[in-house]
Design brief:
Helices cover about 75% and strands about 0% of the residues. It is mainly alpha-helical and about 130 residues long. The protein has a single domain, classed as 3 helical TM bundles of succinate and fumarate reductases (Up-down Bundle), CATH 1.20.1300. Helix 2 (about 50-65) crosses helix 3 (about 65-90) and helix 3 runs antiparallel to helix 4 (about 100-125). The termini are far apart.
Length: about 130
Amino acid sequence: MSSNNRPLSPHLDVYRLPLSALISIVHRGTGAFLTTGTIVLVWWLVALAGGEASFMGAQDFMSGFIGRLVLFGWSFALFFHLANGIRHLVWDAGYGFEKDEVEKSSFIVIGTSAFLTIMIWVVAFSSGAGV
């Protein structure tokens, strides 16, 4: 039998992942991004300890477009990872496993992380403490 006539298995372009599966994937990605962001934070602290010239170089990068984009992404990753971690604690307690509750908690995680990210940036820039 020729393998050309055999049906192919459904793949990701055929099957639509549920929101909770996408949230799980993003949760792992935000964990990796938080690690990378922590390395950037350590670089900034080492530049601070290295004197005024090295600190000003790091500060110039962090206050530029790319630096602010990294900081914005890092703050979103932090709040997303936090909110989804709280959801996992609730699950560990044995609550929220019904299909509609899982869907609702997925939207709560997204909304909470977006709200907290926007609020921290609004507060930072309104108080003059922006990067």
